[in-house]
Amino acid sequence: MKTFKFYSIMLLGMFAAATFTSCVDDDDDTPTATILETPEQKANALSAIAGMYNGTLYYYNPTATQNTGTIAFTWTISSDGTFAANHFPASILANYTTNAQEKAILGQLDSKKITGKVEPYATFTTYFQASFLPDNTENEWTVTLEDGEETTTHTVSLTLTQSYSYNSLSNYSTFAFETTSRTLQGSILLDKMTIDGKPCELKSEIDIVGTR
User: Fold this and answer.
1) pTM
2) Tens digits of residue pLDDT in 33-76
3) Read out DSSP for the chain?
């Protein structure tokens, strides 16, 4: 089976640049951060971030403008930092392969709930920065394909991660919440996938932006 190489659409880099630019003090070219160290500081940050978000998920789509596809996406963040997205559109992963069989299998994946924890660690003026720690459990699907009179069943698994290194580059799953606009932007890292037990190389991210 062909090995996947999932490439990030790199939207988060653009978001991060905008975040740090916005947080620069007028008298200093260096953004200043307050590290959230105490339980009270972190609780206050989570209180500000918590809520239900309506927004957009950005993913790789070779047929779209600038290879970036979009789809409506909603999620919640609880006051204890629990992140939950009830309808992660897993079928978008079909865009990441040119192999017809793989594309057919991935295109049949139904939406899946993904969960994790949000851990605020710093504030830049009106921004909170936070890490996203996805659950370590595998997300699994069973897909049935029909080709004429032949029916085949396939299993797919997907694991998310907090960070990874690929081609000497490191990537981290982070969120930024702007308190004035109540907008959250960030990345969810895709790590490992198997199709019918065969591992696929999977190092990429999806990016989300939403307002509560």
Assistant:
1) 0.85
2) 899 999 999 999 999 999 999 999 999 999 998 899 999 999 99
3) -PPP-PPP--HHHHHHHHHHHHT--TT-SS---EE--SHHHHHHHHHHH-EEEEEEEEEE-TTSGGGEEEEEEEEEE-TT-EEEEEEE-GGGGGGG---HHHHHHHTTPPPEEEEEEEEEEEEETTEEEEEEEE--SPEEEEEEEEETTEEEEEEEEEEEESEEEETTEEEE-EEEEETTTTEEEEEEEEEEEEETTEEEEEEEEEEEEEE-
